[in-house]
Specification:
By secondary structure, the chain is of the alpha/beta class. The protein contains 23 helices and 24 strands.
Length: 787
């Protein structure tokens, strides 16, 4: 139940129904949309939601459902039910195409057995009686006309009509030609008057030709005459036409009699078409608002994730804008959310979004929210929105509000959802606030759920200290004086009355006078709320920045793991190749030794020959002997400089020194940057570095110098974006050995400047920072000098 009756309209539910109706193919579907109402039965709601979700899946992911022809066959079936009546050719044609659609749809789902179970339930146990279609198609052609061969009598009559028409035409053509030759005719050709083919004759010649005059021209100079001979033939044709019509009616009556036993089945087919049109319209509307099916639960609570008001979403979509999503939870612990904050900050939209989406779900409609959102069921939905003053009932605005509050309290229970906009307004705040607090206390004792918006401080204080009530605020950027439309649970919000008044230009004198008129306590509370909101915004920005940093770290760790895996695989491959080569060397050495001994024996150990063979053996062995490596002398900071080439001692990897910091050295190895211990590297000469590596490094460095600008413009960037850009910018600047940089951040309120300089002061490579000259930008530009 929705109370009052106007609540659905004020929440926008009637607008939703009108939008759904625009997607219907038939008036029957539109009539079903008009009947959409809030349900409380869990199984019914779940069935309707799943049907719509399945149809949405068909529209997005499957071949089109063959539902192009929708006609109101219920009216036709009811007509056919009455004895003595008959359906016309056109009516039978509409029944025929509708049945074709029904059978095509049933076949579509039979081919996808078990895939769309909730939609298949629409025609479960519904027989496919194709004989009805066969009976109609035997008589009616694809254009909706009686077939000429529907019966032998009709076929004979049609043939006689054709012959008579042919003879009549032939005869009148001859008469017309003779009249033309005699100069009796007026300008023009044969024409039809009163359904008869006539000759245009000049009025002075009308007695020269026997026949019947059907009409004359407006000037009276031309008459339209049907020749006597043709008149008789046309009468024969007319009689044949009457016979044909009588035969057609006879056939239609017989066909209607054949269909009369199938009237209940035709009504069932009509119901299927209507339901399909209805569900299709809901699915198309769901697609238009990016709607999903939430998790339906039986408890009286809700948890909306990334929810958007559907009407607001569609309006923003036209202007290519996006709606700030709403995240809100109402459950046993926080039953009533008391939302406060500035005017035009989104409080009412928040409350209306909750109410409208709850109604939509309980009406079986998908909602524009994350599919993990949870929506429960409420027995009553009570809303107090807008001005309901009534001259007829002699009710003022405040009286109308109090009347609703009275009814809310009487009908409220733990399965009631209340939605109250600007709670307590309409009368003196000194009295309206306490009354609103007492009503809220009574409603809370009845454990209702809901969302309440207010500006009253006493309600914020009451919610803060009362179990079951939860404060919430719409965030506001108090530096740019712009609402953020983000709901923040856990604390009340300031109304920003003085800040907004100052922004729109109210004089300082008036503002100061107003501040003096409010109490010190109220000023302290409002100031505290503003400070809390500012601190929370900074925390949110910091959290966003940290999350971005964590994502970047994860990416870097993943890349590091890939590189490590690649090096391990190469290491195993090199060792394997080395073992194979060593085995080959040993094998060849053994052969050489055996051959040498054999030759010595053959030459009977002559001294000179033996010595010569030994020398040959030693030379061959030296070729495969690995010279003993001397332990490398540990490098010192003084021995290495930026730009030197080094090799890692435990591998053949070569890199170029970017920077030396204490016992560590930063190396550039291709596109990678790595920090290694100083004792793990060995300085090598430029000649020892492969030519292609030197060329690649020189090319990269040249490219960096040619494309790198010493000026970075960050105006208009968010804080986290600006810091990310500076981090990349400084890394490249340090790598290329630059001495100074110019960062343009603008003046504004000085927030971005403060954030950037705070970050740069912690960067170890930064020596100092200075403002630009006042004539060239002043403190809107920061010069950064590197060590």
């Amino acid at each position: 139940m929705i109370y009052p009756n106007t609540a659905a309209e004020k929440l926008g539910f009637l607008d939703i129904k009108e939008l759904i109706k625009s997607y219907c193919l038939s008036t029957m579907g539109q009539q079903m949309v008009d009947k959409i109402s809030v349900m409380t039965n869990f199984d019914h709601i779940n069935k309707f939601l799943r049907q719509t979700n399945e149809f949405k899946s068909i529209l997005l992911n499957d071949s089109p459902l063959p539902i192009t022809n929708f006609f109101d066959i219920k009216t036709l079936a009811e007509k056919a039910r009455i004895e003595g009546t008959y359906l016309t050719e056109d009516e039978f044609f509409r029944v025929s195409v509708s049945l074709s659609t029904v059978f095509a749809v049933i076949h579509y789902f039979f081919e996808r057995e078990g895939q769309y179970t909730n939609l298949q339930a629409l025609f479960e146990h519904l027989p496919v009686e194709k004989s009805i279609l066969g009976k109609i198609e035997r008589i009616i052609d694809p254009k909706g006309k009686i077939k000429n061969n529907a019966s032998s009598e009709l076929q004979n009559i049609t043939s006689d009509i054709a012959k008579a028409e042919q003879e009549a035409r032939k005869r009148i053509d001859q008469i017309f030609k003779n009249a033309q030759n005699n100069g009796w005719t007026a300008d023009g050709n044969l024409t039809v008057r009163d359904g008869r083919l006539c000759i245009p004759i000049l009025a002075e010649n009308k007695r020269k030709l026997k026949g019947f005059i059907h009409d004359e021209s407006s000037s009276g100079q031309t008459v339209y005459l049907e020749p006597e001979e043709v008149f008789q033939l046309n009468n024969i044709i007319r009689d044949l036409e009457f016979e044909k019509r009588r035969e057609i009616i006879k056939l239609l009556v017989a066909l209607t009699d054949e269909l009369r036993p199938y009237v209940p089945l035709l009504l069932s087919y009509h119901g299927l078409l209507t339901k399909l049109d209805f569900v299709r319209a809901k699915a198309l509307f769901a697609i238009s608002i990016d709607a999903e099916m939430p998790v339906l639960i039986k408890e009286a609570e809700l948890d909306l994730i990334n929810a958007r008001h559907p009407l607001l979403f569609l309006n923003f979509k036209k202007d290519q804008q996006t709606v700030v999503p709403l995240n809100i939870k109402v459950d046993e612990q926080q039953r009533v959310i008391v939302v406060s904050g500035p005017n035009a900050g989104g409080k009412s939209v928040c409350m209306k979004t909750v109410g409208l989406l709850q109604i939509m779900v309980q009406a079986g409609l998908l909602i524009p929210a994350d599919e993990h959102s949870k929506i429960g069921l409420f027995k009553q939905i009570c809303a107090d929105i807008g001005d309901d003053q009534s001259i007829e009932s002699d009710l003022s605005t405040y009286s109308a509000h109090l009347s609703k509050m009275k009814n809310f309290i009487e009908m409220a229970n733990s399965r009631t959802l209340i939605l109250i906009d600007e709670f307590g307004t309409g009368t003196d705040p000194q009295f309206g606030g306490p009354i609103a607090e007492a009503v809220l206390e009574e409603l809370n004792q009845k454990k209702v759920r809901g969302v309440v918006t207010t500006h009253y401080s006493n309600l914020k204080t009451f919610a803060n200290s009362t179990p079951g009530l939860e404060n919430a605020s719409m965030l506001f950027n108090n530096q740019e004086m712009q609402p953020l439309y983000i709901l923040s649970l856990g604390k009340p919000g300031s109304s920003y009355a003085f800040e907004i008044a100052q922004k729109i230009g109210l004089s300082q004198k008036v503002l100061q006078s107003a501040k003096n008129k409010i109490g010190d306590y109220q000023k302290k509370v409002d100031t505290l709320l503003v400070d809390l909101e500012r601190d929370k915004k900074e925390l949110i920005d910091t959290r966003v920045s940290l999350e971005k940093g964590e994502r970047r770290l994860k990416v870097m760790l993943a890349e590091n793991e890939q590189l490590k895996t690649y090096l391990e695989e190469n290491k195993r491959s090199i060792i394997k190749d080395a073992k194979v080569e060593a085995q080959n060397i040993i094998k060849n050495a053994n052969k050489l030794i055996e051959n040498t001994i054999s030759e010595i024996k053959e030459n009977k150990a002559e001294k000179e020959q033996t010595q010569k063979l030994r020398q040959n053996l030693e030379q061959e062995l030296k070729k495969h002997t690995v010279p003993e490596k001397k332990a490398p002398k540990p490098q010192t900071v003084a021995e290495l400089q930026k730009g030197d080439w080094v090799k890692l001692m435990d591998s053949e990897t070569i890199g170029q020194v970017i920077e030396i910091a204490r016992d560590n050295v930063i190396l550039a190895m291709g596109d990678l940057r790595s920090v290694v211990k100083l004792k793990r590297v060995e300085k090598i000469s430029n000649k020892a570095v492969p030519k292609e590596i030197r060329k690649s490094y020189a090319h990269d460095l040249t490219q960096d110098f040619s494309t790198f600008s010493t000026e970075l413009d960050l105006r208009g960037r968010r804080g986290d974006e600006a810091l990310y850009e500076i981090e990349k910018y400084l890394d490249r600047a340090v790598m290329m050995g630059l001495n100074s940089l110019k960062i343009i951040h603008g003046k504004g309120d000085g927030i971005l400047r403060k954030l950037i300089r705070g970050y740069l002061s912690k960067y170890p490579q930064v020596d100092r920072m200075e403002d630009e000259h006042a004539d060239r930008g002043g403190d809107g530009i920061t010069y950064v000098y590197l060590k």
